[in-house]
């Protein structure tokens, strides 16, 4: 039996991505190379691990057992190789951060600037993905921590809430609600709500609000980004909820293409930092959280509310 750490990591990525082509892109190798490595692992273990299907792949019983062990191995390696705190309160080495596209672009530039000033020796590797994918990749060991919308299952992750972010109702400038100062839940009755895919926690939050308010979730369109949602709203295709940091960054104050109405009572989403309970270096986790809190307090206190 000759099993390599590379093969174990390849299998974990394949399980997370559920497609050979997508997993190969994530790993930066060709699809045939990935197939050969998985076949070599199957030969070494004496059985088939994955079954190819038209819609993706499924794990065999042996595959499920090996995949579970692979996660344990990768977490142990991650704890072994993860950059240590070089001195009290100081970060060193490389940290891998996953972030949601609905959060990172509007918060991270200032956080990274502060991180570089306070801890110039740390190297940060950042990857964007929807929250559901981020959680899967965190479990698979691809990230040391993720910055994302909560909740996440506390029994699997170390979760630290950071701030609450208001959600504003976005309507077209021609919409009957555009001239109101605020919007209430009753105003959503009968409205068509545009949302992101179900990989985003924001989707489920808006779906719950739609049911509660008697609104209609548009099933024929799911936005791939907050920009896409805003553009569809501007065209009069429906209404949506946009987070405050996005509005601050992307919705112009001069002749905006959509009107943003505060919700009464306010609707929020909660943003937090998460890492694996089994991973090491909690000091790095706490230090990054403290830097993020400081940036929020200094630069975004008028837009969001710190937690803790």
Provide an overview of this structure.
The chain has 308 residues and is of the alpha/beta class. The chain has 10 helices and 11 strands. The longest helix has 21 residues, at 61-81. It is globular, with a radius of gyration of 22 Å.
- Count the helices. How many? 10
Major sheet characteristics:
7 strands, mixed
Rounded radius of gyration (Å): 22 Å
Compute the average pLDDT: 89
Instruction: Give the amount of beta strand, in percent.
Output: 25-35%
What oligomerization state is this entry in?
Answer: single chain
Distance between the termini: 51 Å
Low-confidence stretches: 83-89
Question: Helix-strand pattern, N to C?
Answer: HHHEEHEHEHEEEHEHEHEHE
Question: SS-based structural class?
Answer: alpha/beta
Shape: globular
Number of strands: 11
* Share in helix: 40-55%
């Amino acid at each position: 039996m000759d099993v390599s750490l590379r093969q174990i990591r390849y299998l974990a990525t394949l399980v997370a991505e559920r497609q050979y082509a997508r997993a190969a892109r994530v790993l930066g190798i060709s699809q045939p190379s990935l197939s050969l490595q998985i076949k070599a692992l199957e030969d070494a273990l004496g059985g088939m691990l994955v079954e190819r299907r038209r819609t993706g792949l499924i794990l065999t019983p042996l595959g499920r057992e090996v995949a579970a062990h692979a996660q344990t191995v990768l977490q142990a390696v991650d704890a072994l190789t993860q950059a240590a705190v070089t001195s009290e309160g100081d970060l060193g080495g490389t940290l891998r951060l996953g972030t949601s596209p609905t959060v990172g672009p509007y918060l991270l530039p200032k956080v990274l600037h502060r991180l570089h000033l306070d801890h110039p020796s740390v190297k940060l590797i950042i990857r964007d993905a929807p929250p559901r994918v981020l959680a899967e990749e965190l479990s698979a060991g691809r990230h040391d921590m993720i910055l994302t919308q909560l909740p996440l299952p506390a029994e699997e992750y170390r979760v630290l809430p950071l701030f609450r972010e208001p959600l504003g109702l976005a309507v077209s400038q021609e919409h009957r609600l555009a001239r109101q100062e605020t919007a209430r839940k009753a105003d959503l009755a009968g409205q068509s709500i545009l949302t992101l895919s179900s990989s985003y926690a924001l989707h489920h939050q808006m779906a719950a609000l739609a049911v509660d308010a008697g609104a209609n979730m548009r099933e024929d369109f799911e936005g791939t980004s907050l920009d896409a949602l805003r553009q569809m709203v501007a065209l009069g295709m429906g209404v949506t909820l946009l987070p405050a940091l996005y509005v601050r960054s992307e919705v112009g104050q001069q002749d905006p293409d959509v009107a943003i109405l505060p919700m009464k009572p306010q609707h929020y989403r909660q943003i937090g930092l998460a890492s694996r309970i089994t991973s090491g270096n909690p000091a790095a986790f706490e230090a990054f959280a403290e830097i993020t809190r400081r940036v929020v307090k200094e630069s975004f206190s008028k837009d969001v509310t710190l937690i803790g």
